[in-house]
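Anyone up for a design puzzle?
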């Protein structure tokens, strides 16, 4: 079993490595700031959530026989609130949502198979209170697309009352959002993108590439395979699919000496067209986290 302190550090490392990858097309990175958020915002947000994750891991160990008591939703809320205390931007809601159940599961797992199984157990054990805390976190972050449909609209004044009246857990509301949000889909299906696709690819990439290029390449691998649902919600599915096709074409040049030129060209294109593959970035951070967890599990064997 991994210690809460280890797990907290790994979440911080994964968050920092994800945003540091450059030129990671379409997102803030170390050579690209946006008008409303800058590279350093993401570094700060990656560090300040560590204590919340450590506390969650500790609670999970203490409540391993009753996972409904670990307060997963409150962890997401506390992490977003702590981020808001330091920077005035939604930099990490998606990362926190993805990494929190992984972190909780890591605290009671001894290998990768147990990790994935325990993510499923933890999500199924979420409560109505977890759902309410998640809605509060979404509203703090002013994030769109997670439950802002006719059913259980996060912006509705009666949302919390409706959740309680209908006994809707965090798992339940994420399952509603799953068809149009890949993060919700991952959290309610034991994370097949992460465990079956991106983590194995990232593990291979790390054998022959730098830390930076591994981050950029796994981001592109995810993007070319899975149209970004943030882009889909902001524009439409056709635009998201077009971006994925461009990422697929870009990967054809990955072994060329001037690959960076193609990367910067794609980065400029996405920036100029305001097409931000934010969901892909969140999946990238979760992938990196799982990779480092696997290395720590291996040390214990």
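Challenge accepted. My sequence:
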């Amino acid at each position: 079993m991994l210690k809460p302190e280890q797990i907290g550090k790994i979440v911080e490392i994964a968050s920092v490595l994800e945003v540091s990858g450059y030129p990671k097309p379409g997102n803030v990175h170390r050579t690209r700031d946006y008008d409303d958020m800058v590279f350093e915002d993401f570094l700060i947000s990656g560090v300040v959530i560590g204590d919340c994750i450590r506390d969650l891991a500790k609670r999970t160990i203490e409540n391993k026989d009753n996972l409904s008591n670990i307060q997963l939703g409150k962890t997401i809320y506390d992490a977003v609130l702590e981020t808001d205390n330091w920077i005035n931007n939604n930099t990490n809601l998606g990362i926190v949502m993805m990494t929190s159940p992984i972190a909780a599961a890591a605290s009671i797992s001894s290998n990768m198979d147990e990790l994935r199984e325990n993510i499923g157990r933890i999500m199924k054990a979420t409560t109505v209170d977890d759902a309410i805390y998640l809605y509060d976190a979404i509203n703090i972050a002013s994030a769109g697309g997670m439950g802002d449909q006719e059913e259980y609209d996060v912006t509705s004044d009666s949302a919390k009352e409706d959740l309680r009246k209908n006994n809707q857990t965090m798992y339940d509301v994420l399952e509603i959002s799953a068809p149009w949000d890949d993060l919700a889909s991952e959290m309610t299906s034991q994370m097949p993108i992460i465990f079956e696709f991106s983590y194995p690819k990232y593990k291979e990439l790390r054998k022959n590439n730098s830390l930076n290029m591994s981050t950029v390449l796994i981001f592109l691998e995810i993007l070319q395979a899975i149209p970004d649902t943030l882009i889909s919600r902001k524009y439409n599915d056709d635009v998201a699919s077009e971006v994925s096709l461009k990422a697929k074409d870009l990967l054809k040049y990955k072994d060329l000496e001037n690959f960076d030129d193609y990367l910067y060209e794609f980065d400029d294109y996405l920036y100029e067209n305001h097409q931000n593959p934010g969901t892909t970035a969140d999946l990238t951070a979760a992938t990196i986290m799982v990779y480092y967890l696997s290395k720590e599990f291996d040390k214990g064997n």
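A detail worth pointing out: The two ends are 10 Å apart (CA to CA).
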